[in-house]
Amino acid sequence: MAQLYYRYGVLNSAKSANLIMAVHNYDKKNRKVVVLKPKIDTRSKPNIVESRAGISHACIDFDKNENLFELVNALNSKDIIDAVFVEEVQFITKEQAKQLHKIVHELNIPTLGYGLKNTYIDGELFEGSEAMLFYADKIEEIKDICEYCNKKATQNLRVVNGEPIYKGETIQIGDVNSNVEEYYVPVCGYHYYHPELK
């Protein structure tokens, strides 16, 4: 029986690399997979999932109005799909998370969503993350360590011009604005409030 997996981690925890390697395992066995990515993720080229480790894979970009069940069902009717992978699943809507659940339980296609759980704003959940926590049959954490110590990283800290940022828009795509010094770091609970910024 197929299941919906939600694999989450903090920033820089190799989520994209994990997704690409899982897809590779299907590819080398000549299995048909569909890889999806929200268009809102502008860090990588269109229709490409890229990892900071330097590996990449082709994908289908979609927007927040796309019906993922209908998309996958149409593709599946042409060529049987063995698995669906979704990159940056935190950016999907609640309705799209429900559509992923429907892909699993109506089409019997294993579906794996990879993404963040928490925003940088007081650790709040993204809409897609919250929905995946509800709909997923299996929830797995991709672990990483804090930028400043050896504790497990549980938060994403946004830093702009050397200052930690705790308020703002929920969705801020990093690595794209060259006018400001902006970056994100994975941190433990203590260093979320007491970052060792230089």
From TrEMBL:
UniProt-annotated catalytic positions: E88 (proton acceptor)
Entries under PANTHER family matching the protein: THYMIDINE KINASE, THYMIDINE KINASE, CYTOSOLIC
Any one GO biological process: DNA biosynthetic process
Species of origin: Clostridium botulinum C
E.C. code: 2.7.1.21
Xref: Gene3D superfamilies: 3.30.60.20, P-loop containing nucleotide triphosphate hydrolases (3.40.50.300)
Coiled-coil ranges from the UniProt annotation: none
Family matches, as SUPFAM superfamilies: Glucocorticoid receptor-like (DNA-binding domain), P-loop containing nucleoside triphosphate hydrolases
Residue positions binding substrate: I171, Q172, I173, G174, Y184
A single Gene Ontology CC term: cytosol
One Pfam family named in its UniProt record: TK
Molecular-function GO term, any one: ATP binding
Keywords: ATP-binding, DNA synthesis, Kinase, Nucleotide-binding, Transferase
Catalytic activity: thymidine + ATP = dTMP + ADP + H(+)
Entry similarity comment: Belongs to the thymidine kinase family.
Annotated protein name in UniProt: Thymidine kinase
